[in-house]
Structures are given as structure tokens and as C-alpha cells.
Amino acid sequence: MARNILVVEDDRNISDLIRMYLEKEGFDVRIAYDGGKAVEEYDRQAPDMVLLDVNLPDMDGFAVCRALREHLDCPVLFLTARVEDADKLSGDRVTVVPNDNVGGAGGFTRGMITAMEQDPKATNILLMDDDVAVSPESIKRTYNLLRILKPEHREDMISGAMLNYEIGEDQWEDIGNMTQQGTFAGCKPPLRLTLFEDLIYNEMYTPTKWQRNNMYAAWWYCCIPISVIEKNGLPLPVFVRCDDAEYGIRCKTGFITMNSLCVWHMSFFERYNAAVERYQTTRNTMIAQATCGMAPGADFMRELHNNIRLELKKFGYANAELCLDAFEDFLKGPSFIKKPGQAEQSFMAANRNKEQLVDFATLQDQANQDPELTGFDIKEIDRQLIEGDKPRSLPERLEDLITDNNQRYIKKDGTGYAVIPLQGWLYPAGAIRGKHKLVVLDWYNRKGTIRAKDVKRYQQIKKRYARDLKYYKANIERIRKEYAEARSELTSLE
After folding, report:
1. pLDDT tens across 469-487, in order?
2. pTM for this structure?
3. Most buried residue among 209, 287, 290, 457 by CB atoms closer than 10 A?
4. Which domains, ranges and CATH numbers included, belong to the chain?
């Protein structure tokens, strides 16, 4: 991973801000305020990455890049927001293709189209997320692997593993599958690749029959043959989330993994976003299944029900409403997602409507003004305390199951508070039962919020969900037919 970064920026306020954030993340940072100084700093000590401003006082960033190109052996990230710079950014080895904000799915699709249209046409396209750290060695090995593939593997996808950005030797996933429960999951458990037995397991693992039929390669690092795209069409235009899973399952190719083919990626715990996990994931998995038949045995309605109920138990009413927003947008049929700009607009709306977090200092100020949170001190909270839970007796478990934490049948306001983690898939049932307020913390990003039990809002959400289910049962066959008929248009190469 890049640790030594050269920042070339003449605005000292901007350069100081960049330095502050990068050093906070553990990077070594050097600053050059003009092009000439940048070349000197590069010659003095080659960095692992260059952040390069386009507008510099003595020579522009493009000239600096050209000056470094002869001995440039590291990535260069240009600091510019100008579309008109695309031609200047392009060169003999790099072509920049500007486009509107079309999300991750749209960006990958744009890359596929460009790869097919270039002359000569590409044989393969390598897709990577924009928030990964990749070693050039992985790209070299992917290229060499493509050169020696046997004919029967020419249309297989090559999948790079996701390593934990914080703990570099921990592998989270190399091949994923859509589970019967309707969730994304790695085929293998997390592995520590410095342990011999884990290294062997990583190579020798045999997937189950279900996994083989519902397998995909995630697009944090995935090499796809152009011939596969020509046969199967383009990904669904869902903006972000589920596009890679749906596409891998749809194409039914083989998948190749290999030790050393990998990227470092921020863990999902650190980048949790309810707009993605509750809105995008709910809507897009349903669209993918109805349109292209993704994982026909996966029960996405069960997952919807479980997620809504989980959020309600934890007083996450805004996030439960995001699930319903997603469900209702799916029920509108393919005409909704086909509207120009709709995918972006709905995602932005989900970001606005999700539960809003504040920084720890503001959170503490809010707690200080709340008599129910007397004694709360963010400085005394650690990660272990947040992720802790309390045991429950069998009668307590039954009560929580029936009443959704005393919000139906037996309705109680509750007393006191608990501190819980933000991540939606966690359920500290013993810690939250009987409470009136919850302090919810995003430990990794140092943000949080305060939730309060609201039985009235709970009931409103349950009534809305019941209305949606009634409509679903009456119209789902028609809706599925409409999505299936729209497949050719939504995935067309034309």
C-alpha cells in the first residue's frame, strides 16, 4: 500500500488540509508548491503516490507529469474537477473518458462500452473500485495469467481478493455468492494469509452446489473477457450495489482466483451507509431477480422483513422507512428505473432521508442537554463496550420476539439508554431491551446519533408495510413479467 505521498499543490490552505487528513490515516506526506519543486522532491525520494494539482504557478500539472514520466513508477492522481482536462490527462497509455455521475454501475458500464469500441478492441477489461489500493504486481500477474490460460478458460472471470485495508494480511473475500437468505456473502470465511493453514485453505476450498450456481466476482478487482460482455449484455443500470453480483450470476462463467491477485479495501464496517444497505440493496436485489433471474432461490422478501423488523427493534425508524422506499420503488416496475437520471436521484434522496449522524463532539453536547443521558461520556466509550451485549432469559427472548422490544401488544416507553454500534446487521438484543433511548455510534468514522423509542412512528411504519404487502401480493406476477420483458432493453449493447 502507498505510504509515502507527494502532494503537489500551490494553495497552502488546500495542501495543509490534505496533509492533515493523510497524516491522520498514517501516511507520510511531503508538499511541493510548484512543478519544479515537485521534480526535485521526486528525484530526492521516489514516492508511492503523487497527488498532483493541474493548476500550478510555474508549469501545469500535465507538464509535471510529462517531466516525471521517464522514471515514473507510481500512480498519479490529478486534483481537478474540469471535464475539459480529459484530453490533457490522456496520453499514450491512458485515456480519460469523462461522463456524468452514473454511479458505480454506470461507471463500470461506461468502461465496458469504451473497451468494446476502442481500436483495436480490447480482449479483456479490468474493473476496480475507486477506493482500493492496488499493487502493480497484481495487474502484471493478471496480464500474464491471461497469456497462458487454456482455451477452455478463456471466458472465465479473474477475481482479485479483497484484503482488509487496516490489517493487510486479512482476506475478507475473493469469490462471493448470493445466499438463500438473500444476502451477499463470501464463499470462504475470512482468512489470515500469514497462517499456513489459511493459505492452503484459500487454494483448496471447494464451493457448495448452491454457491456454484449463485457465484459472482465482486468488482473491487475483476477481469472480464469482452466476449462474455458481448454474449450477455451490460449490467443493470442500478447506479450502485448489486450490479456485480447480478452480472456474475447471470453470465454463468468460471471464476479464477490466485494467491497474490488482490487489492486492499476499506472494511464494510468502516463504510456502512444506510442509503446503500437499506435502500439500494433492498431495491436492486429485487430488480435483479425479477429482471434477469438472479438467484431465483434467494428469499429477498424474507430479507426485507428481517431488515425492517431489526431496524424497528433498534428504533432506527428512518432506516426502516428507507427499506419501504426501496420496496415501493421496486413495485413501480421497470418504467421507474428507466427514467433518465432516476437512479442517481433516488440514491441521493436516500442519502438525504437516512438517519443523519453528527461528530462525537456534537453528540456529546446533545447528550449533555438530555437528562435521560446523564453520565454519558464519549471519552469513556471504547469499541469493546459498543459491541458488547447482555444475556437474555428465555421469557425475555419471547417477549422481545412478540413485542418488537415492547412496541406492539405490550407497549412500554422503556427507561435508560444503551450504547450500540451503527452497523445495521448487528443486533445487541440484550443491551437494548427495555431502553427508551439508544446512543448509536459509528466508531470508525467518529460519528453518532441519539435514537428514542417512538411507538406511534413504529405503528405508522407497520401500517405502511402492511399496505405495501397487500399491493405486492395482488400485483407481483404482473410486475415480474414487466421486469422480465424489460431485460433486453436494460442490458442492451445498442
Report:
1. 999 999 999 999 999 999 9
2. 0.80
3. 287
4. 1-98 (3.40.50.2300), 274-355+457-490 (no CATH), 358-453 (no CATH)
